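Q: Give me a protein?
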Amino acid sequence: MLIVAQHPFLFYGKKVKIIGRNLVRLKLVSGAELVIYCQMIIKEREQAMFIRSVELLDQDFRGLDAYLAEIPAIQSLTSLKLAVSPVTFFVGENGMGKSTLLEAIAIAAGFNPEGGSLQLRFSSSDTHSGLYQHIKLIREPARPQDGYFLRAESFYNLATALEEVDYDGRLKNSYGGRSLHRQSHGESFLSLVLNRLGSHGLYIFDEPEAALSPSRQMTLLCALHDLARAGSQILIATHSPILMAYPGAAIYLLEEGPIRQVDYKDTEHYQLTRRFLADPERFLSLLFEQEGSRKV
């Protein structure tokens, strides 16, 4: 008998448990268990992509959202693939719409605008844009088993909301066992990532490097790698050349024009950082000289 399946898997509608090489246990309707011999090929679970792409439905931005029509990346957006890699980065200069687009994707996916899990709901300041009402997420049949939206600017509010709903103190165990407010910003952020997040999840991070030193960004890189290997999909808006170095990641550049995919070493973040570190004294001399000439 040849069975090609995932582990654990269903055989004629019955759950099968692998108990040894070429041996499986099949539980029958009667309650009895049947151990059978078979030649098995266990397929590795393919990487789950929960969101295949995002599409812009219209540009009917009105009122407080009228500014969205002036952001080139959003103005030119038609459809953007998000399943190229388990890890996708949105990069670009300030004001190019990275966080705005990421926030819209998160809200459209069911997350609270200020962050948290798919179940958490709180609001301290209603400042998110209405872009989520103008986009459509093209989803895969698979649904994430977990999800989290983390954004640096509202992490304090998130930590407060978590404490307010943790009536018996047990919730904090899933965040490392310590109150997030009793740790530094960077420590609490990493504690949440390392302890709360898991496999087969949809995780969205908005500028996570804001709270982290370079060495802690490398710790986060390792955590991202573990999450991706465990079947999670991760979307990140960042300025960090350390984070966007993740191998095989899809990097989308938001600039004065349509969004385009770029290679890591073609990003300004990488090139500028490399030039600076190669000769910081000369770089600073040229920088200050140019700055001084502007003021004359």
The first helix runs from residue 72 to 75. Residues 1-24, 34-46 have pLDDT under 50 and may be disordered. The longest strand covers residues 14-20. The chain has two domains: 2-42, 51-262.
